[in-house]
Design brief:
By secondary structure, the chain is α/β, with parallel strands linked by helices. The chain has 6 helices and 14 strands. A hairpin with a 2-residue loop joins strand 7 and strand 8.
Amino acid sequence: MPRMLDVGDDVRAEIGDEEADRLLAGENAPGSYDCTSCRTPGDTEQERTSTVLFIGDETAVLAFAHATCLPSQIVQVSEEQLQGAVRSITGEDGTGLAGVPAPAPGEGVPDQAVLGVTSGLVLIEGELRPALVVEPTGAIARPGSAPGGGDDFLQLLVEQGFHPVASLDGVPPVLHGWSVLLAAGQLHAVLQPGAGLGSPLHERSRALGEGSPVAWWQAHHPLQVTEAWRAAANKLQTVLLFAAPVGSIGRQPREDLLRGALDKAAVHGRLVAAAMPLAGT
C-alpha cells in the first residue's frame, strides 16, 4: 500500500530515485514507527510522515517523523553518534534521542567537548526574548593545536559568525544558516550549515552541500523548556544563543541570576551571541 511519505529532494538525491520510489510505494517503509522527533507512535498509512536521513562518516540511518514535527531532511552527525543510534535501535543500548544520541558527559570521542545548554528568558529592548546559553565543560582548543594550548572557544565561534557582546542592551544580529530545533515543545538541537564550517565541537563528517543542516549541538535527551519560553519563541520565531568559555556562567537556578552572569561575562569580554530562526514549534 502506498505510504503518506514526504521524501525531500536532498534525501532523494542521497538515497537515489529507485529507493525513494520504493519507499513511497510502501515496499521498504514501515507502517507504524516511533517519531524520530517526539518519540510518539506514527503511522505512514494514516498520516503524513517525513523521511529523515542521518549520515555519519561511514553509516547512514533512515528514520521517520511526523510531518508536523519535522520536515524531510538530511542531518549530518558524527559516526559515533550514529553507531550509538544503531545500538539503540537494535536494542543493544537503552538510551538515545531520535535514534541519534549526543555524547553525555564523560562519554564520546577523545577531545570532544561537552556543551552545557541552559534556556531562559532575557529582557532586551523592553521585551522578554527566548535565549539559550552555551558553556563547555572544558577548554576548547583549535583543531590540530597542541594539548594545553589554551581556550579558543570564543574565537572559533567569532570565525563562524557569532558577534562579541559588550552588553545586553541590543539584540545580536541573525546568524544566517543556523537554527534552533524545537519539536513538540522540547529542545532538540542547534543546527548549522553543512558546508564550509569546521567545528571542534563534534566530529567532522563529509559535507553534504550548502543548505544541509549539521547538528552543532544535539540533546542527549530532549530538553524541556518552560511554557513562557516556548510562547516567546513561537511569537518571535527567533532564539538568541549566547556562548561563553568554561567557568563564565555556571548553572544558574533563576533567570535573574542567569542574566546577572551574562552581564558579567559581557563586561569581561567573555561572551558572544547570535540570533537564530526557530525551527519547529
